[in-house]
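Sharing a chain and its predicted structure for anyone who wants a worked example. Both blocks are below, sequence first, tokens second.
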Amino acid sequence: MSKNLAAMSIGEAAPLLRDKEISPVELTKAVLENVERYDSQINAYIQVEKESALKSAADAENDILQGNYRGRLHGIPMALKDILYFKDEKVTVGSKIHQDYIPDHDATVVKKLKEEGVIFTGKLNMHEYAWGATTTNPHFGACHNPWDLSKIPGGSSGGSGAAVAADMTIASLGTDTGGSIRIPASSCGIVGLKPTHGRISKHGCFPLAWSLDHIGPMTKTVYDAALLLETLSGYDPQDPTSTDTPVKNYTELLSEDLSGKVIGINEEYFFKNVDKPVEEAVRSALIRLEKLGAKIELVKIPTLAASEFAELVTIVSEASAIHHANLLKRPEDFGDDVRFLLEFGELIPAVDYLQAQQVRLQLSNDFAQAFKHVDALISPTLPFLPPAIGDNMVDINGNKESFLDQVIRFTGPGNLTGLPALSLPCGISNGLPVGLQIMGPAFKEENVLNVAFAIEKLNLMQGQKPDLTGVVSH
């Protein structure tokens, strides 16, 4: 094969596996070779499962040779965020407290991927307990951005973002409570989709904040995100937030035709205080979409002004409730940043939490009104470019601002409302990718995917990927 196998997307690799032009063993070996080559520098993996992956790949190869091809994920190597349960395997949740935790069941998404014949190459690094957006993990080491090893990959699914970008997995899954799929997708130049709340079961995923958590795909292409969405979606009685809403064939619905589509932008919130190169890349993409026949319309979403308060209060309160017992018993076993947030969450009055839920209700109503007039909303994913590892400030137009204050400003509303939201790259600035966010109406993931598909076809990244020639494991 002329093309580097590990650089393939699912959409490229699947037909070759099906037609026996490449084997699952070849593909898995290519991915594992990249892990060996790059991961001591990038640190995307907490655990590499080489032997079991090669055995699974050999089994998949035998199945396919005997005519038992299961579908487009059969023989595809994937590593997942180390927050999803694998039966009888260690799942650390990126923490010291759970470093030896062995679940007695598979997460629903893991079970579905196993049934499809996915090859698991290991567990990926993450922000401790998913409670942060840097993936600077005190227990397993900082994960580095493949575009620039001095920068963060975003978080909390930073290992997933970095591994997909560096071709150390063909695709991955992340979790998203305030932006934890979309932030690393933006930072690492890949596609990250947070589906509608309730669309993909969260059974067997360690929670961060019950009412805000989502699981979703992190991939090289929009097609791959659509494929994983249609594979993993569906009602699950084991997840009390799961909804019984019809699942569509999202890959078949993909279309780059935007003629007659209306794309909304909200200037007052989503384009306020954005670093100039980020804003320019997103607005340039909007101009290109207009040329494709899309109509751009300004929308008002008044309650967005209160969304940062509502997201912060909700996430810190629910996270502190989940970790309350361990915070009392063994506070020293949390990383400093996570312990600070958990202690802060213990101080939030019930009045604030309940007011935040009223804001959520109104915000959902505002978005529903906006989506009566537009098919999708576009904004930057992040208002800044990824900062250096260890830097708690970000640069926005020459001003130093708090990373924590700014990082979920544009992603948080998607969690509060539960609406589908996707980040995909729309350009490069200072050698780092810029992410564009698309939001859509509840359970209309196809709206979001189609706009993303059209943007992807514009080739705004011009085929650029991280230059890993100098990143060789020692």
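Comments welcome. The chain has one domain: 7-457.
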